[in-house]
Amino acid sequence: MARKPTLSPSKITTYLACPVKYRWTYVDDRGKWYLRSKSYYSFGSTLHRVLERFHDTGDAGVNTTEEVMAAYEESWIDAGYASAEELAEAYGEGREILERHVQQATAQPRESKTIFVERQFRHDMGEFALLGRVDRVDEYPDGTLEIVDYKSGRESVEVEDVATDIAMACYQLLLRHKFPGVPIRARIIALRTGHSAAASMTDEEAADFEQTILQLGREILSEEYHELTPVFKPLCLHCDFLPLCRKHPEFAEL
Q1: Residue 58 confidence (pLDDT) above 80
Q2: pLDDT digits (tens, 9 = 90+) for 166-190
Q3: Cα 135–27–131 angle (5° rounding)?
Q4: Is 70 exceeded by the pLDDT of residue 1?
Q5: Where along the chain do its domains lie?
Q6: C-alpha angle 43/139/47, rounded to 5°?
Q7: Are 129 and 11 in contact (CB under 8 A)?
Q8: Entry pTM
Q9: Overall average pLDDT of the 69-80 stretch
Q10: Strand 195-199 to strand 145-151: parallel, antiparallel, or no bridges (unpaired)?
Q11: Name one GO molecular function term (predicted).
Q12: Are 7 and 220 in contact (CB under 8 A)?
C-alpha cells in the first residue's frame, strides 16, 4: 500500500515561491546534487538545538548560562561559512543571542510552562497529511497553548507578521485538531533582539485556511513538474538550482 503524501509548511512555501524549485527539492532526485551548505541554516539549526535543550523540562543539564554556552559549543555547526572570520563573527553573535535569551527567560517567574519542544504534529487531510514541527509549545494557566517559533535571522516582528505567516497558520491548524476546543495562539520570537509578537486565528479563519491548504495541496500533488518552464525571478540569483534552470532552452535571465 502506497504511503500517503505529506505536505509541510516548508514544502508549501517552497511551491508558492517557485514550483520549479519545489521540483528540484522534493520531486526530482537530481536536485540534491546541487544543494550547498548555507551558513544561515547552520546558524539557525545550532541555536534551535540549544534552545530545545534549554526549554526541555526533561533535560536537567542545561539551565544556567554556563550550561547553555557548553551546549552551544557542543552543538555548533560550521558548515557553509565562507571564511574563518565569518564563522567567528557568527559564533560570537550566537553567544550573545543565547545569553540574552537565558537572561530574559530567568529574569522573572514564568507564567507558562513548556510542554513540548521540537514536536512534530500530523493531521490527515484526506488526499494528503499535513505535517509540522514546532519549536516549542507553552501552556498557560487559563489553558491556552502558545506555539513559539524562533527566527534566528530577525531583529523585529509585528503582530501582522505572525498573522500572515503560513507556517504559523499551519501550526495553529495542527494543534487545533490535536487539542480541539483549546485556545491556541502563535508567537514568533526574533532571536537577535528578543522581540516577539503573537496572534491567533478565529474559528472562521482556521476553517477558511484549512480549505485553502486542501486546495493548494491538491494543486501541489497534481502538478506536472517535468513539464514546467522555469521563469526567472529575483530569488533565482541565490538559488542552488539556477544551473539546472539555465539548461532549459526557454529560460531567460533578466
Answers
A1: no
A2: 999 999 999 999 999 999 999 999 9
A3: 25
A4: no
A5: 36-109
A6: 10
A7: no
A8: 0.94
A9: 96
A10: unpaired
A11: helicase activity
A12: yes
